[in-house]
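Title: Prediction job returns without error message
Component: structure pipeline
Severity: low
Priority: P3
Assignee: unassigned

Description:
Job completed but the reporter wants confirmation the result is attached to the right record. Sequence as submitted:
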Amino acid sequence: MLEFDGLTKSFSDKRVLRGLSFTVRPGELFGFCGANGSGKTTAMRIALGVLTADGGRVRWNGREMDAGIRRRIGYMPEERGLYGKMRPRDQLVYFAKLSGIRPDVAARRADEWIERLGVRMGPKDPLERLSLGNQQRIQLIAALIADPDVLILDEPFSGLDPVATDAMAGALTEFSRRGVPVLFSSHQLDLVERLCDRVGIIRDGALVAQGTVTELRRATDRRQLEIALAGAPEHWARTLPGVEVVAEQGSRATLRLRPETDPRELLAAAQSLGDLEYFGWHEASLADIFREAMTT
């Protein structure tokens, strides 16, 4: 189990982490979500030993992180961290050998992953000649090729097309099924919702929500209805009693009901304004939950 326990970190007078605590269990895909500058990358870099925490600890299976444990972590930074002038396959073999993999095994694994993730390149192309999406694939392979015990990935799906996204998601799911804890950050909340076992939402360096998407829905005030009316006047939803308008799009509105509001009375009020096209409870997406966590 990967544990982040009470991490604090400041740069000059700016506090970046404020007692950050969460765990990633064996075989779990954990989505780490937050706005830019919320502290996600800083927490990951502390786990890797790139940065030192002011307070708190990162542990693996109850042991505080040391150089030996960190050698078994597959890390993918958000920024490109490979050599632009070097051929991708040569780099992958080199990084695998640094992790103690035999040269013949490293070469075989590099070829297998390149084929599996559909990397398109010429045999003599340096990395810098590849598209950004193919560079992203190579960077992920560099994190996976040594069969790590832990995966920590910073925005691994950035810049990928849907086919590459599916291939990468399949690779991460395969590692999690082997019992590897996988921590990754992403702004693609629909993907996080679909892929992850649990989610942590960080704001201003502290975790403000954690759990499965279902648990996060239950923990948040989600008593919302969606109503669609044809022929209703503009901004019709704002005239309804006992509700707060969460969103409006064309003839459809999402409404948060006050505790005393009776949905049946609301339905009658809506029908007096136009022709009813839709009336039903709204199930919050992770994006909805995230927006609420960022503002409350």
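Comment from assignee: result matches the submitted record. The chain has a mean pLDDT of 92.
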